[in-house]
């Protein structure tokens, strides 16, 4: 069954659209919902974030199974039965945690010539190879898989290395996922623009 990639900017309505898509268009009512935002790490004073999380919870049907997977959402998908339909929302928080685990920050300038000369593996290249293999395997699942990701590269990009790396790595994930996706949808103001695999 297909892999579907839904992308959009912040507050574009991409998550709500993806939820309606998997329920009403794909006609799946028992869904494995994978959330990558670590709610336990959210600041208690961040009322906007907590309000947004509450809205997400209210939209989700009771028949859906929630998995909190901030570190390894891809592994969770692969562990689930191939006949279970999956909605993963979203890729951005997962990329952020990947960068933290690998020490990507303004203090570390990334992989450089000295690393290469000393035979150290490039963590980004290794991760891209893992994503390529795993997303291909996800695209071969028997059930539908919908991945919701952020499009972060349309505006001005701050010069800080950490932000630049986040946009670059997220963009690479989106490119790999779009390669294996049967359908790709760009959501703008809650409206879908089909970039690939539009229904006839």
Model description:
- The chain has helices at residues 14-25, 47-59, 73-79, 91-101, 113-117, 123-139, 161-180, and strands spanning 3-8, 31-35, 65-68, 85-89, 145-150, 183-188, 191-196.
- It has 200 residues and is an alpha/beta fold.
- The chain has one domain: P-loop containing nucleotide triphosphate hydrolases (Rossmann fold).
- A seven-stranded mixed sheet has the order 3-2-4-5-1-6-7, sandwiched between helices.
- Helix 4 (91-101) crosses helix 7 (161-180) and helix 6 (123-139) packs parallel to helix 7 (161-180).
- The longest helix has 20 residues, at 161-180.
- The relative contact order is 0.23.
Could you list some keywords that capture this structure?
seven-stranded mixed sheet, 7 strands, Rossmann fold, alpha/beta, 200 residues
Please identify the structural class as seen in this structure: alpha/beta
Percent of residues in helices: 40-55%
Domains counted in the coordinates: how many?
1
Mean pLDDT: 85
At CATH level 3, the topology is Rossmann fold
Total DSSP E strands? 7
Q: How large, in whole angstroms, is the Cα Rg?
A: 17 Å
- Give the distance, in angstroms, between the N- and C-terminal Cα atoms: 17 Å
Main pleated sheet: 7 strands, mixed
Sheet with most strands: strand arrangement:
3-2-4-5-1-6-7
Under the CATH scheme, the architecture is 3-Layer(aba) Sandwich
Annotate the secondary structure layout.
Layout: E1 3-8, H1 14-25, E2 31-35, H2 47-59, E3 65-68, H3 73-79, E4 85-89, H4 91-101, H5 113-117, H6 123-139, E5 145-150, H7 161-180, E6 183-188, E7 191-196
Parallel strand pairs: 1-5, 1-6, 2-3, 2-4, 4-5
Antiparallel strand pairs: 6-7
